[in-house]
Amino acid sequence: MNKIVHTFFDWSEIRAVLPDLLTEGLRNTLIIASLALLLGLVLGLLLSVLLIAPKWWIRLPARLYVDILRGMPAIVTVSLVGIGLPLAGVKPFGTSPLGYAVVAVGLISAAYICEIFRSGIQSVPTGQTEAGRSLGMTYLQTLIIIIIPQGIRNVLPALANQFIVAIKESALVYLLGLTLGQRELYFIAAQRQAVTYNSSAYTATAICYLLITIPLTYAVNYLDRRLREGRNNHPVPTEITAPGELTHEGASL
């Protein structure tokens, strides 16, 4: 029992690694996750629009991307992007692994965010599209002005949850050999454990992750609850009235 406590809960080891975890590690983990989520949101929204296109040859590239990126283990994607691209001579970020880390996690996030956006867009009643087209809007205008904003609102909790996933997936970028000043939480713990042969640094890292993810999880649940209550109290209309046009109730008055 004493050996287990010493291996995983050595306070001297935790105290020694904690400053690096709370400064460099926490900062870089949040930077990687935030930038990756931003990339994932932009690419995922574009892919979701392609996925709901009426023509199959427009949907096909998006479907292949989503199926491939969701089907591969995240660690393989990180290796292909962060290690494979520089070896192939594709070096948009030079020798800095941080940029490749963001792109790798962002590409993975985009595949999942794409499906989140798609489900949100398709959950909007078809009457909204019909009403937009009846007002003279094109398909694209109806999609951008009416459908997508409502669809995004429907999936806000799922998008927030994806940020939590990105935080955890950022641990995989340790494969890229981040340099001093670029290390994320897991990489710092791995380096410390390699020197001391003590796993207490991993315990400290786990605590840091939990300090981020548990409050975010409760925040996501709260947001989901509020949105569901709001939808119950204020149902989304299925028809759009043009400015200055009387409704049936208004006409009867």
Q: Which terms would index this structure?
A:
globular, single chain, MetI-like fold, 11 helices, mainly alpha, 77% helix, 253 residues, disordered C terminus
Which SSEs are present, and which pair or pack?
Blueprint: H1 2-8, H2 11-51, H3 56-71, H4 74-87, H5 97-122, H6 126-134, H7 139-154, H8 156-169, H9 185-196, H10 200-233, H11 248-252
Structure description:
The protein contains 11 helices and no strands. It has 253 residues and is mainly α. It has one domain: MetI-like fold (Orthogonal Bundle), CATH 1.10.3720. The radius of gyration is 23 Å and the shape is globular. It starts with a helix and ends with a helix. Residues 236-253 have low confidence and may be disordered.
Outline:
The chain is 77% helix and 0% strand. The chain has 253 residues and is an all-alpha fold.
Shape: globular
Helix content: over 70%
Helix count?
11
Please provide the count of β strands. 0
What share of the residues does DSSP label as strand, in percent? under 5%
